[in-house]
Amino acid sequence: MTILDVQNLQVVFTDDEGKSSTAVDKISFSLQKGEILGIVGESGSGKSVTSLAMMGLLPATGKIIHGEINFQDKEDSPPINLVTLTSKQKRDYRGGKIAMIFQEPMSSLNPVYNIGFQITEAIRLHQNISESEAKRKAINLLQEVRLLPSDKDLTQEFLQQNQDKTSTDKDIAIYLNNKKRSILKRFPHEMSGGQLQRVMIAIAISCQPSILIADEPTTALDVTVQATILELLKELCRSRQMSLIFITHDLAVVANIADSLAVMYQGKIVEYGNIRDILFNPQQAYTQGLLACRPRLEETRTYLPTVADFMGNNQETPAFSAPNPREIKLNEPLLRVNELKVGFVKKGGLPWQKEYFWAVDDVSFQLFAGETLGLVGESGCGKSTLARTILRLIPTHSGKIEFLNQDLTALPPRSQRLRQLRKELQIVFQNPYNSLNPRISIGNTIAEPMVIHAMGGNGTKRRERVRYLLDRVGLNPNWFDRFPHELSGGQRQRVCIARALALNPQLIICDESVSALDVSIQAQVLNLLKELQQEFGLTYIFISHDLSVVKFMSDRIMVMNRGKIEEMSTAKQIIDNPQREYTRKLIASIPKFPTAV
Fold first, then answer.
1. Rounded to an integer, what is the distance from CA 503 to the centroid of its chain?
2. Within this chain, do residues 255 and 378 fall inside the same structural domain, yes or no?
3. Span 516-532, pLDDT tens digits
4. Whole-prediction pTM
């Protein structure tokens, strides 16, 4: 049974000057009951606008000017064209019949209300039930999305904790009730990204929707958490006979969940059909490019193809030449980290009895000039804390950090020597939107480090240097006076890379610097980082939770877990023959393309 039928949908946005641009250009697709439809494409392709149009959530500047969105959840009822409904009628369908999970759960949840209130609010909005009944449903939902263990598991947990005591049914009931009430009382800031996304799924399915739309729900999550969320969504679709529209930019992710696939490019659907047919026999150059640009564990590449490489050549796959081998100087380490410990004082307890949470716990390693050391692990394992500690942005508890044979931990925070050494240490952060000052032009942003360290000569010479760096990272040198809001996410990340290069550093730390980018833009940035390493003799610490990306970039890989080093070896050794169970778990969680039958 066809539950949703979209015909010739066209969405247009109008700016303040009255100029119109088409975001969705007469697309058509259908969704069957219980089916999982994947929609893929780069940022700006129209994926999210399509979902917002179906939900009736387009901003004031956007308007559906053509097409139909026909919804039919029962065979004996006529289809309803959602486009023609009034605002009040759309509210009856939105959240009740069609629900949506957004990409960033922290932006979707109200930080001043606990999760119990927010789930029960969604339930009572569409169902005429009491508050106590809504709370009972909220608990059942949290158990269904596995944020809270089942009653059976909670009972087993209680019995294991109280093996030496006689427990009554009343004791068990009190324990279960306390556990359930405590999870409902938690606030969004007290939960991880994966837990928050489960809360959003619980809210979305609270009213038994016929269709669930998931808009990039796993983009910012670790690969292990991502794999869990994907499996959870598939199970919910099976158990509830619910249809799912899964929106992403990553074909490897959608390959593990979808039955059918629509590929969007510049507002149009360029390829649509059975997912295996498209994955194994893509007809369009754009689809071929999306498939090729994601790093794969089973392949060793020195260059990642990009969508641009394919768009001008529809007949055959382009050939890619490998750069010359890089020279890594193994005689003298550029960076030595010895028995490093970084701790944060836990809340509570007596002032004279400080208890620490060890974010970095007795870590030791060496980094050589010209090398790329990959640093992988789940969120909270200590990767970013280690990076910021090396840069002396976080104080150490014990241990040594030697850079260029100078003990950084022995230098006072405001010493002139530390200031000089910081010219050789730079960082590229994960989110280019937060890393750039929106009130400063990109040219002045890149020039700022040179001004602070009194390098680069006068203003004219610095401007020439900035223009050179803009050109070197693939941006127009004439964009000096442009502001960050005039650039895309990938272009902003290139500005951040240019800023890191401004002082000719020896070591650059890339802290999840491609995690938030489209796979095609990610491929461009990764290729650029490798090319710049060749040209400038750079040394990288490349931080990511995605082992396939780290393998492409790295000479050696260091795996971290709970502040400690699990294992460290060459990239090939770690991927082909991991020694620790934690590493094997990370590798198993990476989205993989299905094999042809």
1. 29
2. no
3. 778 888 888 899 889 88
4. 0.81
